Amino acid sequence: MAKTLAELSPNEFERLLEQTIDNRLRVWLIQLMDALTGSDVEEQAAFKPEFTDSLRRSLEQAASGESIELEAFRKEIKR
Questions:
Q1: Do 2 and 64 form a contact (C-beta atoms < 8 A)?
Q2: Mapping DSSP to helix (H, G, I), strand (E, B) and coil, where does residue 47 land?
Q3: Radius of gyration of the chain from Cα atoms?
Q4: C-alpha torsion sign, points 60, 70, 20, 18
Q5: Do the beta carbons of residue 67 and residue 5 sit within 8 Å?
Q6: What CA–CA distance (Å, rounded) separates 75 from 61?
Q7: Rounded CA gap, 32 and 10, in Å?
Q8: Is 70 exceeded by the pLDDT of residue 54?
Q9: 3-state helix, strand, coil in the chain (%, to 5)
């Protein structure tokens, strides 16, 4: 069951944020290395199922209005 931001403990939120940042940096580094080496491995690779599921859930949440305003998010993380 998914939790809202208000339901997350500070430790859970911090862990989620760290995972998100780590994943984004990993993707950025792979893209940078591909650009520098001219690798086309990414073109041959398929999306991982968990990424596809996550992307689908994100799109569904955005379409249904299940999002948080940036200012509300900032207030939550300052608590």
A1: no
A2: coil
A3: 16
A4: negative
A5: no
A6: 21
A7: 32
A8: yes
A9: 75, 0, 25
Q: What is the pLDDT of residues 2-16, one digit of tens each?
A: 788 788 888 888 888
Domain ranges of the chain: 7-39, 46-79
> Sign of the C-alpha dihedral, residues 32, 34, 38, 43?
negative
How many CB atoms are closer than 10 A to CB 60? Answer: 10
How many Å is the maximal CA-CA distance in the chain? 45
pTM score, two decimals? 0.43
The tokens 């580094």 sit on which residue?
Answer: 29
Are 79 and 9 in contact, with CB atoms under 8 Å apart?
no
Nearby residues of 79 by Cβ (< 8 Å), 6 or more positions away: 10
> Please, are residues 68 and 5 in contact by the beta-carbon 8 Å criterion?
yes
- 48 backbone dihedrals φ, ψ, rounded to 5°: -70, 145
